[in-house]
Each structure stands twice: as C-alpha cells, then as structure tokens.
Amino acid sequence: NGSGDTSLAWEETFSYLSIAVAGCLIWTIADRKRKSYQLANYWLRTVLRYFIIINCFRYGFSKLFVSQMPFPSNSQLATPLGDFLPMRLSWMFIGYSAPYEIFSGVMELMAGIFLLYRRTVTLGLFVAAAVFINVMVLNLCYDIPVKLFSIHLVVYCLYLLANDAPRLFRLFFANQSLGACSLYSIPFSKKWMRITRIVVKSLFLLMYVFASGYDIHDFATKNRQIKETAPFKIGVYDVITFAVNGDTIPITPADSIRWRDFIIDNGNAGSVGSVDTSFRQRYRRGYFLLVKDSTAANTILLKKNAAVKNPLYRFQYSIPDSSSIALQGSRQKDSVYVLLRKSKRHFQLSEKQFHWISEANR
Hints:
Blueprint: H1 7-30, H2 38-64, H3 74-77, H4 86-96, H5 98-116, H6 121-141, H7 147-163, H8 165-172, H9 191-224, E1 235-244, E2 247-248, E3 261-264, E4 269-272, E5 280-282, E6 285-292, E7 299-303, E8 313-318, E9 324-331, E10 334-342
Helix pairs in contact: 2-5, 2-7, 2-9, 5-6, 6-7
C-alpha cells in the first residue's frame, strides 16, 4: 500500500537489530584480541556511502523532473482542506511549487555527486545529512509512512561523519588545520585491482546514475502530457440531475449515493463528490478509472481500479451541447441517469501566484 512503516517492517527492523547486537557481542568476545577492523570498516563505509548515493540520485532525479510530488489534481483541489491527512497535505504543499521541488532535488543530486568522489565525501555527507534530516523530520511531523527508511538514511550519514569525528572536532572546535581525509582511500597494490575499481565505478555511473535519470525523466515527461478520454475534457462538472430508476435525487447531507460533482483528472482518472463506498474512497471523494467500452459505441465504464473486471457503472453518453454531457446507464439492477455541466468553478491555488510586493497579507 505504499507504506514503509508497516508492522512487518518494524518487526523486521527490530529482528535485524537484535541479531546484530547479539552478533556484535559474540564477535567481540570471540575476536577480543584484535585491536581494530580497518579493512572491514572501509568496506562498510563504502557500502553505506554508495547506498546513500543511490538514494540521493533516485530521489533527486524524481524531484528534479517534478515527478515525486505532482501538482494537486482537480479532485484534490476540490477536496476541503480539513478532509486531508497531514501526509497528503505535505505532499501537495511541495508539489504546488515546481521550483521548490526542483531546488530540493538539486540539493540531493549535489550530495550524491560530492559523495561519488573521495576528495569531497565529507562535504557530501554534510549536504546529505542536512537534506535527509529535513526529510526525516518532515516524515515524523506529518505522519508520512517513510519514517523507518528516512531514519536509516540519517543514521548512515551520521555514522560516516562519526568516523571522521577527530578531524571535524579539530576543524570546528579547535581551529586547527587538517590534512587530507584518508578514510575512503585504500591502496590497491596490483594494477588489475585499480583497473577493476575504475571499471566498476564507471559502470555504476552509466547503468544506474545516467540510466535511472533518463528513465525518471521519460516517466515524468509522459505523465505531464495531457491525456483526455473523449469526449470528456479535463475539468470539474456540476451534477445537474442525478436520477435512479426514474426518481431524481436531490443533494442532501445524509445521502451517500448522490454525486455532488464529477471531476476528470489527467488521463483516465477521476472522482465524484460522494462517500459511496463502492468507489475507491479517499478524503470523502469516490475515485474511479474512466474507460471507453470497446464493444459498444458511445459507451464508457467507471471502474474502481484497473484490476477489477466488473465496472461500477456502464453509461451510454450523449452531448446535448458544448458544455453538457448526459449519461444513461445502470448500476447493478438500477437504471441511472446523470446530467453533467461544465462548472465555472475556479481554483485560486492553480494560478501559482507570486508577488515581489504585497501591500497586505494574502
């Protein structure tokens, strides 16, 4: 369900931590004569460093191409603010401003680029720690279900910085000059080892960084294209008439079936202003997929999701005029007639206003 904070995830984390603590104690006792694990710690630092790099580029490209947090859809704009959960509110807050999202992505990409090169790893860790601490706090404060993962990223950054603590203490607190950091430099005695390191790193850059960046850019470009399901234009429609078995149903607060509005978002997604649980309910709106019926002319299907075979509604449509759509069909054993009219409703939030000078608080 898109959550990284499931009960299974927490149980797995606790189990891995318990096993790690037990293994650490056994290893410490069994190998108590060894004074240090410099080589093992080098490979641990390298694995953690590249894990952070991968996620810097993955999330950075997603934000750079404005695909992680898209601009709020018409259905979301029509939802009362108080109905949203804090996670969705935070997602829309970031998605509203493409420049802010791009800026966030650039910072993550900068962290990844700095971490790629051993001379700039320390700078990259500071940038990555700042970025991911902000993400972690956002996840914790807005109940975003990626808490465990973001905490892991922060812990990894802090662990790598802790390895360089003596140098950083001298720099920030003792005002002393520092030599070069050697934590991420290991002497490869043989030529084939040096060549292998260069080849592996080049393949990593080519196959992951550039390839993943291209894939995310392609995905974002396709999602930004306006896709309308004829004859329905993207927008908000008022439900003028809603009749079941010939009886017109008025809008009443207690009614759970009658539609208040009908909204078409980009692609074949849409929603109705109704708490009808036969739809996919989110924030007191019923969401659906709009699909053209290939077996009948001028016929559309409203489906709960792509995996469901049986549609919620099967409608034949007609277009009385340029701003109206009439739907005649059935829901289970009931006949349903709906008259839609393009709404004049305007969402100020979609204007993306910006003012250098504001004479009053807007």
